[in-house]
C-alpha cells in the first residue's frame, strides 16, 4: 500500500470515529442561518438619484466647490425634512407600523437616507420598507414633495 493511501485511510478513519463532531459543527453553522431566514421579515431598499443644480449661484471659481457642496447638503436636509415627508404622507398613506402610537413622519424619516455623491450635483435618496412597491411609491412621493417645496 502506498504512503498516500495510508494517510488517506488514517484521515477517513479519524472522521468516522468523530462523525458526531462534524455533525455538531455543521449544525452550529447552519441552524442560526435557517432560523434567521424563517423569522426575520425581509426589508427592501429602493434608491433614486436626483440631479440638483443651483442655477442662481454666482460665485468666484475658487469658492464654487465649497458653496456647491453646502448647497447640496442643504438640499439633502430639505428632502429629509418633516415638511417634505409629511407632504409625501398626504400623497401616499404611510404603512401601518408595529408601533401604532408612533408618528408616521418620524417612522419614515428613520428609514430615509439622503446622501450627496462626491464631486457631483447628484443626491442619492433611499428608503427601506418591508413592502417593495411601497418603498418605490414613497420615494416618488418624497421627490415630488421636494419639487413642490423648492418651486
Describe it for me?
It is a single chain. With 151 residues, the protein is an alpha+beta fold. It contains 6 helices and 3 strands; from the N terminus they run ααβαααββα. It has helices at residues 3-17, 19-39, 61-79, 82-91, 104-111, 132-150, and strands at residues 44-51, 112-116, 122-129. Strands 1-3-2 form a 3-stranded antiparallel beta sheet. A hairpin with a 5-residue loop joins strand 2 (112-116) and strand 3 (122-129). Helix 4 (82-91) packs across helix 6. The longest helix has 21 residues, at 19-39. The model has no long low-confidence stretch (mean pLDDT 86).
Q: What would the principal axes of the Cα set say about the shape?
A: elongated
Mean pLDDT: 86
Summarize the amount of helix as a percent range: 55-70%
Distance between the termini: 86 Å
Q: What are the segments in which pLDDT stays under 50 over at least 5 consecutive residues?
A: none
Main beta-sheet annotation = 3 strands, antiparallel
Helix/strand-derived category reads alpha+beta
Read across the widest sheet, the strand sequence of neighbours is: 1-3-2
Question: Which H/E pattern describes the elements?
Answer: HHEHHHEEH
E-strand count: 3
Tally the helices: 6
Radius of gyration: 27 Å
Strand content: 5-15%
Amino acid at each position: 500500500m502506498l504512503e498516500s493511501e495510508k494517510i488517506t485511510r488514517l484521515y477517513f478513519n479519524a472522521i468516522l470515529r468523530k462523525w458526531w463532531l462534524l455533525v455538531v459543527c455543521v449544525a452550529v453553522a447552519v441552524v442560526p442561518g435557517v432560523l434567521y431566514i424563517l423569522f426575520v421579515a425581509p426589508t427592501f431598499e429602493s434608491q433614486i438619484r436626483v440631479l440638483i443644480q443651483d442655477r442662481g449661484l454666482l460665485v468666484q471659481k475658487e469658492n464654487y466647490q465649497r458653496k456647491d457642496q453646502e448647497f447640496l447638503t442643504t438640499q439633502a436636509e430639505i428632502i429629509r425634512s418633516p415638511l417634505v415627508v409629511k407632504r409625501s404622507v398626504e400623497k401616499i398613506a404611510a404603512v401601518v407600523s408595529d408601533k401604532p402610537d408612533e408618528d408616521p413622519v418620524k417612522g419614515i424619516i428613520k428609514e430615509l437616507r439622503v446622501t450627496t455623491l462626491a464631486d457631483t450635483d447628484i443626491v442619492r435618496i433611499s428608503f427601506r420598507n418591508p413592502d417593495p412597491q411601497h418603498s418605490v411609491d414613497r420615494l416618488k412621493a418624497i421627490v415630488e414633495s421636494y419639487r413642490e417645496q423648492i418651486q
